[in-house]
Predict the 3D structure of the following.
Amino acid sequence: MNKQPASNSIPKRLIVILVSSLFLIILKSQNVYAAGTFTFNGIDYEVLEEAVDNKAGKCIVIGAANHNIKKLVIPCLAGPALGQDYEIIGIKEGAFKNYKKLKSVSDEADCSLEYIANDCFKGCKNLRYVYFESLTLRKIGKNAFKGCKKLECFDVYSQLLKKNSFGKNSFSGTKKGLLVRNPKLKTAKKYAGYMKKQGATNPKGALALPDPGDDD
């Protein structure tokens, strides 16, 4: 019987172990934080893109620890621990639906908020004031503010919203004469028209705000 020559190849099992160990070492050295959920200053978030070293990840708002909050402020950055920073790019579908005591919603200057998903603030019957400084806001989902019967003022700094950016019935059931404000008067009036098509009753776009960053 012929003897098989000794193999110089590394066993597959050992290769798998070595590769796995190397991968873990790389992750540890780069401080990659796994996707999941976390709470920061009372607001709950879902991670979409991991934070690596000094590069911020991306996350969305999914709700609040206290369903009886009266004031919601969305920060520019959030994170579960030091060195774990995430940009907030959106608010998840139904995140604050039926938060009966919520009165105001705003974001911090330079926030990267891009969208407000469907049903986000639906049924927030005491919501009066919404103030979004984010210049990147592009979408307001269907029924987003439906049933917010006391909503009287909606400030939005973004110039990126189009007619189809406003979802079906997104402002149905809001207070008559809703004041829509933007740094550009023309844009404010245009947005008011879009909101009217999505349920707002006689919204007004007659008051323009100073441009973000202006000192005057």
